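Aim 2 progress update. The chain analyzed this quarter is reproduced below.
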Amino acid sequence: MLRDLIRLLRVHQWVKNLLVFVSPLLGHALAQAGALAHACAVFGAFCAAASGVYIINDLFDLQSDRAHPRKRDRPFASGRLPLGLGVLGPLLMLLGFLMAWAVSPVTGATVAGYALISLSYSAFFKTKPLVDIFVLSMLYTVRLFAGQVALHIEPSMWLLSFSSFLFLALAFLKRYAEFQGIAASGTSYETRRGYSHKDVELLRTMGIACTFASAVVLSLYVNSEKPVAMNANVQLLWGTVPILLFWQARMWMSASRGFMADDPIVYAAKDWVSQLCLALIVGVSAAAVYL
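Predicted structure tokens:
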């Protein structure tokens, strides 16, 4: 029962909400008084709101999940949990909104916007080819934006440009991995999706293009004047470019080989090579600042 409840809340998906810490970390804002507490509150708000959305999404997709080769084992689809627990969805979304509102009204509005976009995605946008990809990437970006508004950090156009391509790549990767899993299962499941199996290679092509575009934007940023003022040895930042590109290329290879059943960020959180790449990027970035 407890394990099914944890699965219903999608606790493993909370790792995506760590994106709220990215802007404060890059802006060196977490050292300010109360900043870490506010960032943690926003993280908790997104976790609550996201779990509420996942529960409602499971109710939307009940029949579809029962026909899916992997998702049919979800608590609602399998019948292990009563559908009456769906009431937790709106309650958790309300809790997330109130937690964010306690930080600031703008943060509360951001979490409410995230929940609205997520519900719209579950009810409508996920059936629209390509539109679903862009909405997915938008949901990643909203988390990034929430970390900025909560701590009053001025938005960076470089970060916005880089993250736009990176999140688009991850959204394409998520959809590609899903269809790879369906193909490997030998089923013909295509319910509530606007794609067919003929589109799989096109999804991969567009996603890989976004992967390399994100690396190009990062290279242009490192070569610009802005990082010079923030880093003692800006040349070291060039090391982040091949590491990031290697990580994304390996993620695509993992999906192509059928190893990726989860959301890419969830998969990366459990993958030791991805963890090593993250540690190297953090180490190189820290060396660029302090050495």
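Residues 156-291 form one domain. Residues 83 and 131 are 30 Å apart (CA to CA). These observations will guide the mutagenesis experiments scheduled for the next reporting period.
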